[in-house]
Amino acid sequence: MWFRDDLRINDNAALAAAAEHGPVIAVYVLEDPALTGVRGLGGASRWWLHHSLDRLIGRLAEQEIPLLIMRGDPRRMIPRLATKTGAAYVSWSRRYQQPQISLDAEVKQSLRSRGIPAHSFPGHLLAEPWEVTTRQGEPYRVFTPFSRTLLTTLADTFPAPAASAIHGVGADPKRSRAELAELALLPTFPEPDWTDGLRDSWTPGEDGAWERLDNFLDSTGYARGRDYPGGTASSRLSPHLRFGEISPRAVWEAVTARLPDEEDAGIFQKELMWRDFAWHRLHHRPDLAITNVRPEFDAFPWAWDPTELARSTAGGRDGRRSPETTDDDFRAELSAWREGTTGIPLVDAGMRELWHTGHMHNRVRMVVASFLTKNLGIHWRHGEEWFWDTLVDADPASNAFNWQWAAGCGDDAAPYFRIFNPQTQAARYDPEGVYRAKWLPPAEEYPDPIVDLHDSRRTALSAYEDMKNHQARG
């Protein structure tokens, strides 16, 4: 069983299929970006992966299944391991983006050429991208009709094998944890240790996922409270779904059966379908993280430096600092946005929550993304790259898709002229200032705003009109 973003035992069709063919050997390969072209994980995701794998080692050991942990190119390593161990069957859960799709196809072909059956299984999404199409067989680009069609595909359920039905060849957790340590996923730089906040906020692993889901299902008021960052209505399941510690179908069915309020259940299930929509779009647009979906935005004058990330922080989680900047340099504003020192309270509270916990409330994510791309005029890719490195739920599809949505250049995007006013949003969704008070310093230490919200809004709208006029002129 080749584990990837499905770090769970229950409701894992690929693991169940492997178990049907005899004792199981499990393997995880951290794919080397230099060899595979697969985007490397950010710092917060690496922290999560380490702890999720550690817990998976323990869960598998209960069934005497060893977890072999490696780094490199699975096109070479998986066939070699299967041959060495005399595997009669190899399975894994499907991936839906390039270059992973082609990589997995190569592994499958290599195994089958050696006479070893190899099969992939669903489980990361509610429905496969090729199952949800228009009447013309084309992929959807608008969420509402997509969600209607998706609902018609959810009649069948995925297998949910019991852990007791799975057994292995004998586990050595100590060896697996030594191999995990060799991946060096955790930071090694000196204090301050930014992982303290992550440890305080999260319990990675399958057990943590189900505990989080149970707590959510015991609550009420999701539909009414989900937009209020100072409350507790959010499920906070996103990192568990990102690493496959729980399947979206399992969450869907649990919400249907146990969430007491029908409106709460329906609204939350729309969020699960939005996640699927992002993945379906990435399946058809593998360049989603680097290319505007709407090509007219190629002419939009966002501030952009393709070398900035490599020259500065690589996202920041590795402990390095941004380069020195001048006051008239957009990089100074980008640094202020990253550090939560823009002088705009709701924006800064969100960015500080992100740094401390590896997470940010969804309403606030929209506000900080709008502020970066529209009030500061900085390219959405700078924001996407920062979130990729600092979010524990940095999902290849949702991260890029939602940044393009917020910037106005993506599929089914918010109109460009919809600019979230952080002051209005704070008054409406944090009226008592609970969220801002939690994350901001005392008022006397707070900086002045780095930009005027009204003037910068007018500038953004003017740039949008210029872009439209440029497009009209051809």
UniProtKB/TrEMBL annotation:
Q: PROSITE patterns, per this entry?
A: DNA_PHOTOLYASES_1_1, DNA_PHOTOLYASES_1_2, PHR_CRY_ALPHA_BETA
- Cofactor(s) the record lists: FAD
Where in the chain is the site Electron transfer via tryptophanyl radical? 302, 380, 403
Keyword Cell membrane assigned: no
One of its Pfam families is: DNA_photolyase
Q: Which InterPro entries match?
A: Crypto/Photolyase_FAD-like_sf, Crypto/Photolyase_N_sf, Cryptochr/Photolyase_FAD-bd, Cryptochrome/DNA_photolyase_1, DNA_photolyase_1_CS_C, DNA_photolyase_N, Rossmann-like_a/b/a_fold
Tell me which UniProt keywords the record has, alphabetically: Chromophore, FAD, Flavoprotein, Lyase
Its BP terms in the Gene Ontology are: nucleobase-containing compound metabolic process; response to light stimulus; response to stress
Q: Does the keyword Ribosomal protein apply?
A: no
Locate the Photolyase/cryptochrome alpha/beta domain: which residues?
1-126
Q: How is the cofactor bound?
A: Binds 1 FAD per subunit.
One GO MF annotation is: DNA binding
| Spans through the membrane | none
Detail which positions bind FAD. 222, 234-238, 268, 393-395
What does the similarity note say?
Answer: Belongs to the DNA photolyase family.
| UniProt protein name | Deoxyribodipyrimidine photolyase
**Source organism (scientific name):** Corynebacterium humireducens NBRC 106098 = DSM 45392
List the top taxonomic levels of the source. Bacteria, Bacillati, Actinomycetota, Actinomycetes, Mycobacteriales
